[in-house]
Fold this sequence. Notes:
Blueprint: E1 2-6, E2 9-13, E3 22-23, E4 32-33, E5 35-38, E6 46-53, E7 56-58, E8 66-73, E9 76-78, E10 86-88, E11 91-98, E12 106-108, E13 111-118, E14 126-128, E15 131-132, E16 136-139, E17 147-149, E18 157-159, E19 167-169, H1 203-213
Parallel strand pairs: 3-5, 4-6, 5-7, 6-8, 7-9, 8-10, 8-11, 9-11, 10-12, 11-13, 12-14, 13-15, 13-16, 14-17, 16-18, 17-19
Antiparallel strand pairs: 1-2
Amino acid sequence: xxxxTVGDVTILLPDLDPEGLHQITDLPDDDLHDGxxxxxxxxxxxxxxxxxxxxxxxxxxxxxxxxxxxxxYGCEIVRTDLSGAALTGVNIERCSVTGSRLTGSRLIDVRxxxxxxxxCRFDYATLNRVSAAGSVAFTDCTLVHGTWSSCxxxxxxxxxxxxxxxxxESCRLDGADLRGNRLHAFAAPLDNLPGVALTxxxxxxxxxxxxxxxxxxxxxxxxxxxxx
Length: 228
């Protein structure tokens, strides 16, 4: 059993046997088990109610795919282009996604369990009603200019990520580990963030969010510099 730990979150990783994988080039018409997709291009393809299990997808072009229903289980996705992809109602479990590009992607009603995103680009991505049913971590990811709404991501780990200009609306990140992130212009209602873990370096950004949320009028001290 392969695992990795990000902060306090331990994730079960896929444990693939490279010799047991068979090469796949074209998108199959049904479920796929133990496939190896390398340098394949499925750009713009439609995928419905398809299950991939124990597969490795590496250096593939899956940009602008539209995947509805089905599941990814025990899969590795490496250095793959998923920019502009739309995943709706997909279950992702015991998977790792590393070095991949998800710029402008849309994840809707996606369920995550034991999923690691490492060194991925989620800039301008939209997450809507994405839920964490188990351990989930983002590490060294770029999440700038994204929009997350109505997500249930309690206890996730976001470590060493760039969250600049990321907007959260009606999301649950209670107990999330946000240590070591860049939070410039990060926007979230404070009641979305109960119990999150931060370092002292992130506190000024939290202060800014509190000032904005409470509409506090910060002024210079009028009495400073005047004698009595």
